[in-house]
Amino acid sequence: MLNKLVVLPIGDIILFTENGLNIGGKDLDQEQLLNFKDGCSVLKENFARKVIHEQIRYKATEMGIHKSQSLDELMFAKAALWVLNEYEILIHKLSEL
After folding, report:
1. Which of 6, 22, 55, 94 has the most CB atoms less than 10 A away?
2. Beta strand 14-17 with 20-23: parallel, antiparallel or unpaired?
3. pTM for this entry
4. Quick check: helix, strand or coil at residue 17?
5. Are strands 26-27 and 20-23 parallel, antiparallel or unpaired?
6. At 79, phi and psi to the nearest 5?
7. Rounded distance between C-alpha atoms, residue 82 and residue 57, angstroms
8. Separation CA 59–CA 67 (nearest Å)
9. What does the pLDDT look like over 32-74, one tens digit per residue?
10. CB count, 10 Å around CB of 95?
């Protein structure tokens, strides 16, 4: 029964190691690492992703600054901006491996 139970991870999914990357508890070999890095580089430069991120950033800022009527709405907008920022940092870091 426990092996079918879905739970949130209690640690990072992506770990930077001496040998490169560990994803989900498994070290990537050189070919996997290169493919992962290349995928992140493509994602980093993808025009559609950039436009979508900017739209979400705009909507979160608009909600947080201009439209929020409660602390919950303000915190939600701040969380959305935090997620976008963390995503950008991780994509940049992984594309530079």
Report:
1. 94
2. antiparallel
3. 0.76
4. strand
5. antiparallel
6. -65, -40
7. 10
8. 10
9. 999 999 999 999 999 999 999 999 999 999 999 999 999 999 9
10. 17
Question: SS3 of 93, please?
Answer: helix
Residue with tokens 């976008």: 84
Helix, strand counts (H, E) of the chain: 3, 3
C-alpha distances out from residue 63 to 24, 35, 76, 85, 88, Å:
35, 38, 9, 17, 21
Tokens (6 digits) for 23:
């994803």
The two three-digit tokens of residue 53, written as one number: 């991120």
Lay out the sheet containing 20-23: strands in order across: 14-17, 20-23, 26-27
Write the pLDDT tens digit of every residue in 5-37: 555 556 678 888 888 898 988 999 999 999 999
In the numeric block, which tokens belong to residue 78? 């701040």
Token pair recorded at residue 28: 């990537």
